[in-house]
Every structure is written in C-alpha cells, then in structure tokens.
Amino acid sequence: MPEMPEVETVRRTVAARVAGRRIEAVEVRRPKFVEPLTPEEFAQRVTGRRIAEVDRRGKYLILRLTEDGAPGGARAGSGGAKANGAGAKAKPAGEIIIHLKMAGRLLVCRTGEVLEPKLEKHTHVVFRLEGDEELRHIDLRHFGRVSYVAGARDRAGYAAHPKLKGLAALGPEPLSPDFTYEHLKAGLARRKTKIKPLLLDQSFVAGLGNIYADESLYRARIHPERRANELKPREVRALFEAIQGIIAEAIAHRGTTIATYVDGEGRRGEFAAMLLAYGRTGEKCSRCGTPIERIVLGGRSTHFCPKCQKLPGAKRRVAPRKKVARTTVRRDQKVVQ
DNA sequence: AAGGGCCCCTGAAAGC
DNA sequence: TGCTTTCAGGGGCCCT
Q: What CATH number should be reported for the domain holding residue A260?
C-alpha cells in the first residue's frame, strides 16, 4: 500500500525513465479513472506534450507537462527529474496527477510488452512514450485516479478539481523544512482527537499511512489512543523524530512491500523486514518482549506494544486523593500566574 | 471538532 | 474440494 516512501520510490524510478520524453499517445481503458474528463478529452489534453519532470506531494504523483517545443534535454540521470529544464525553457502545459491509493502501480514497460494476465486485466491508462516505451497505470483495486489540470498547479487550481481536493488541502511534507517540531507541537495542541487517526489525516501531515503511523508511534512509545493535545513535550519531540526517522529510512530502503507494492521498475521495497509493530500482532515487542496488540481505530487496524506504549489513566484507577488535589492546585497556580 | 459509518473495488483468506 | 463470506485499505463524504 503505497504511502509516502513508496510513492517517492515510484517517483524516482519513473522519473529516471520518463523525464524529458514526449507522450505519443494515450489509451484509457477504464473511463472512470480519468473522470470527470472523458477518455477522449483526457487523451486530447495530454497527447503530444512532454513530461518535463516527475514530482510528488504527499501520496500524489505529479507529471509536469510542457509544450513539445524544445527537445527533452537531458535524459534525467540518477539525480532525478528536478534538475531538468535547465536547457529547454518550454512552457508549462498542465499536470497529470496520479494517486495510487492502496494497490496502484506505475510501471515503465516496453511498448506492447505483455505482463501477467492479472496485471493486464487491471491496466487502466497507458501513456505511450517516444523511444518505444510506455508508462502504465495498473490498479488491482480500482481505487486510484489519474487526473489532469491545466497550467495552474497551485492550491486553488487543485481545489477546483473534483478529485484533487485532498491535494489542495495537504499538510506539510514530513521531511520538508515546513515540518518542524514547533509546527507539530502547535498542531497537536489544537486537536483533541486520538493521535493515530490524526497522523493519518493528510491535511495534518502529508504522506503517512497506516504502516508508518503505527511505526512512528511505536518508536516514540506513544499509545495510539492518546489525545493529541495531551502529549508531553518530550513525547512530541520523540514523535517528531520518529516520523522523520522512519520516513527517511523507509525511503532509503525503497519502501515497504507487504503484498503488491513495486516501484516503477517492478522492484519490491525492502523495508517490510524492518517493521517493528505493523502487522506483528502477537509477536514479541523488540524492546520488552510483550506481545504486540492489534486494535481498530477509525476503521484502521492499529498495532502497538501495550507495555512500551502506555495509556495514562487506564491504570491509575485508585489514585490517592490528597496527592492528586495538591498537584492540581500547584499546577493551577503556575498557570494563572 | 470529533468520530462513526459508508463507499469505492478486488483478491486473498477464512469459514462452511 | 469448492463455494461463500469477510476483510483489508486511502481517502472522500455524509451525518450526528
């Protein structure tokens, strides 16, 4: 299930293969994927354009197109797509925006290459490129979307598209300079919701999905049902570092393959072996040996260590009244002053 | 604002 | 063995 590290891995592998190349033809096999455009409208807008670069925001992939004026320039080496555009100053001509949802793939294939039947059956959009290769959107679950926006590429432009409200509302990238400890602290303080569902909220932080939310909380030793605004500064700090650490490590390992995920060249990710909580129900916690538990939060399976990730309040059922009262008073006085 | 439920959709796994 | 049911999951959307 592609989350940010998987989508970033797809971005890198796809960019290295398609950046700078012209789209010769488009085949839309399932019209619903390009809605609200019709297959004809979608093909007409995209055909003949050049893929200047492949970008990413959260879990969205963005193919930036230019008019096919200048030759594609450098064939985007290992450095990725962003370095492109130094030579040719072609005009921006719109963007193809792809969300893989949970089972989507973006594969670079030779033109006409026949894949296994299951993949052929669920190939929904094919971009035929110059140079005898094609970029295929394959989705076993049919949840994904391929959208087109003209020029704009700003939040307002995305917000106007019926399928891109989420992109328009994305929060900061976890590895970007916008995502700071202070930002996280302030954001958490404003919310009373449980921390796990909040981490899945793409407008809060972009790119975390079920796997990395669980892993981040596990690493930070925070129970998934803790209220966001009740986390202590130490815990917020730990969470901040856990999120950045996990995401960076997962990208370095080219993502996590549980079932179907592969990158733009069909390779699996290697991070699954390093997961310590997600999918490890009943297995021993790597820190304390307690069996990992699974609960459901906001409709998502959630994995955690009940000993390392405690829920305060659940166990101090018989607190000595005197002490509690005194502590409260003291705290109140401090706050008032 | 929070949270529950539903929906999209298919394949795998579990149940019978 | 084979058929049927359940579940998983990203994220939008509606309702309370």
A: 1.10.8.50
Q: Is the CB of A275 under 7 A from strand C?
A: no
Cβ atoms < 10 Å from Cβ of A181: 14
**CA–C1' gap, A52 and B4, in angstroms:** 43
Q: Which domain holds residue A9?
A: 4-168
List average pLDDT for each run of 10 residues in chain A, which is 337 residues long: 85 91 92 88 93 91 82 43 47 86 87 85 91 90 88 74 84 90 90 90 88 90 91 93 92 76 74 78 89 85 89 53 34 31
Same domain? A159 vs A245 = no
Q: Note if A59 is an active site residue.
A: yes
Tell me if residue A120 is catalytic: no
CB within 7 A of strand C (chain A, 47-76): 58-59
CATH number of the domain enclosing A54? 3.20.190.10
A302: DSSP letter: E
Which nucleotide is closest to the Cα of A260 by its C1'?
B11
Catalytic residue, chosen from A2, A5, A174, A224, is A2
Whole-number Å distance, CA A282 to C1' C7? Answer: 19
**Is A337 part of any domain?**
no
Domain-located, residue A261 = yes
If you ran DSSP here, which 8-state letter would residue A79 be given?
Answer: T
Question: Å from A6 (CA) to B10 (C1')?
Answer: 21
Q: Are residues A31 and A164 in the same domain?
A: yes
Q: Please enumerate, as own/partner, the contacts of A166-169 that have beta carbons within 8 Å and a separation of 24 or more.
A: A166/A58, A166/A60, A166/A99, A166/A202, A166/A203, A167/A57, A167/A58, A167/A60, A167/A97, A169/A202, A169/A203
A154 and A225 co-located in one domain = no
